[in-house]
Amino acid sequence: MNWAERIVSATGLAVTGGRKLAGGDLGGAALVELADGRKLVAKGGPLVEREADMLRAIAASGVPAPEVHHAADGLLLMDHVEADGAKGWDSLAEALHRLHAPRAATYGWDVDYAFGPLAIPNTPQDNWPEFWARHRLLCHGEKVDGSITARLEKLAKRLSELLPVSPPPALLHGDLWGGNVLFHQGKLAALIDPASYVGHREGDVAMLTLFDNPPDSFFDALDLEAGWRERLPIYRLWPLLVHLRLFGHSYRGSVVSALDALGA
């Protein structure tokens, strides 16, 4: 059964049009038009039900996310969100306050996730530096060259001195780069493509500032804990290691620079 047939089976409506959506390095999505005039985004893959749960968790926190209409048997159908790219940093800061509101939870998630072929382990832990060391740094050790592995091991031993042991547990988007933040008419329209887990909110800030440059007013509005800028290289190491493994040697220099900044 092809995608169109599966969408008909899931919605009870004929597919009258569609096109592939641009963006994303690891997975495809398509815009589909239904007979009743609605536009949905369709994604396929083995983890779409987990993505759907993350989108629902984000929406439940009061942050805009696409409404999920179907998530089963490798097919995800959700609302298409209009975006024009006109950034509204203030509205994103307000949304992150809601998303990151402290919750009674252990660090991690109830299931693992993945960026394409690269696993994201999320086994819950009560100690935040241990979670970050084990599931965001050391898990890459045997997959990268030995000199970086040794430096990651050295850094991991110091994380209890560099990171808070028990920061307020926050729901994180988990992959909060600019392409996953949709703006429309100067307001946040939706967060998409999450890789959510519970952790320290600075992890999302580090991801966002890896490729984007929000204004100072954005950080002022977030009212982050003292020392957050010094911790950013620790949290940036994870996406940099992910990029190194997925996209190759061109990211090695950025990984080394982050380790240099941390004295590892």
UniProtKB/TrEMBL annotation:
Superkingdom to which the source organism belongs: Bacteria
UniProt keyword Metal-binding present: no
UniProt keyword list: Kinase, Transferase
Pfam family, one: Fructosamin_kin
Coiled coil: none
GO molecular function: kinase activity
Keyword Transferase: yes
InterPro entries registered for this protein in UniProt: Fructo-/Ketosamine-3-kinase, Kinase-like_dom_sf
Matches recorded under SUPFAM superfamilies: Protein kinase-like (PK-like)
Family statement drawn from the similarity comment of this UniProt entry: Belongs to the fructosamine kinase family.
Protein name: Aminoglycoside phosphotransferase
Lineage per the UniProt record: Bacteria, Pseudomonadati, Pseudomonadota, Alphaproteobacteria, Sphingomonadales
